[in-house]
Amino acid sequence: MGTAAEVVVRVRRRDADEVVECPWPVASTDLLSAAAPWRVFRWYGGQKHYSGTYWSVTIRDHVIYESRLELTRLLFADFDRSVHGIVAQPFMLQTELEGKVRKHIPDYLLLSDRGPVIVDVKPLHRLSKPEVAFTFNWTRQAVESRGWQYEIWSEPPPAKLENIRFLAGYRRDWLFSTTVLEELRGVDLDGVPLGRAAACLPGHPEPQVRATIHHLLWKQSLVTQLDTPLSPSHTLRKAA
């Protein structure tokens, strides 16, 4: 690929009905993080992809996705404490390679403590297709030329996905009693099995305490092993 300066970026602004175009190396994170999704979603009978919106606690707003695999990436991003911004279809990159104009719209921009992360979501079985590999290769070069991270996301480990999907049901903080949360934070649950933890506050119903513990696991105030299906024998640990 040519130099990064030969790549241009187009962004649809949320705050104005316009498309901004500029050289990729000078596109600011402020511009990209305020982008509206590049494509307009359409729903129709027989469509191949499952589209929808996911309410993200990270940005306290809805984020669009065009497939169930994209939804899994949103779940993992929302669970990641280092991520503080999520933008769907943030921009279109364009360059000229091998005598042809090439265009690509990444799936997500994650703003994180480790810097911007550009994410493309693609099933594992499609990564070997020449056209996919070609597009992802020049996109990676453009992204990494700025010192940013580029990620290709495929199917995650099933057990970890199911655990995070389950805990995501407890992500909405306003549904939980501040009294129970404060009392739980005052209890030493380090080393306690998940199945016994709900009995630690006898003054409150166990289902309420159990749900609040799941909320603390989502927030990662408490942690446990997520590589195997959650069970009563899982040991709780305080976050490092």
Strand content: 25-35%
Radius of gyration: 21 Å
Largest sheet, strands/sense/barrel? 5 strands, antiparallel
Taken in chain order, the helices and strands follow as EEHEEEHEEEEEHEHHHHEE
> Helix coverage percent of residues?
25-40%
Figure out the total of helices. Answer: 7
Q: Which ranges are low-confidence, i.e. pLDDT below 50, for 5 or more consecutive residues?
A: none
Report on this structure.
This protein has helices at residues 29-33, 68-79, 130-144, 158-168, 178-185, 194-197, 206-219; strands at residues 8-13, 19-23, 35-36, 52-56, 61-65, 83-88, 92-97, 100-104, 108-112, 115-121, 149-153, 222-223, 237-238. Strand 9 (108-112) and strand 10 (115-121) form a beta hairpin. Helix 2 (68-79) crosses helix 4 (158-168). 29% of the residues lie in helices and 25% in strands. Strands 1, 2, 3, 7 and 8 form a five-stranded antiparallel beta sheet that branches. The protein has 240 residues and is of the alpha+beta class.
Features:
7 helices, 29% helix, elongated, 4-stranded mixed β-sheet, 240 residues, alpha+beta
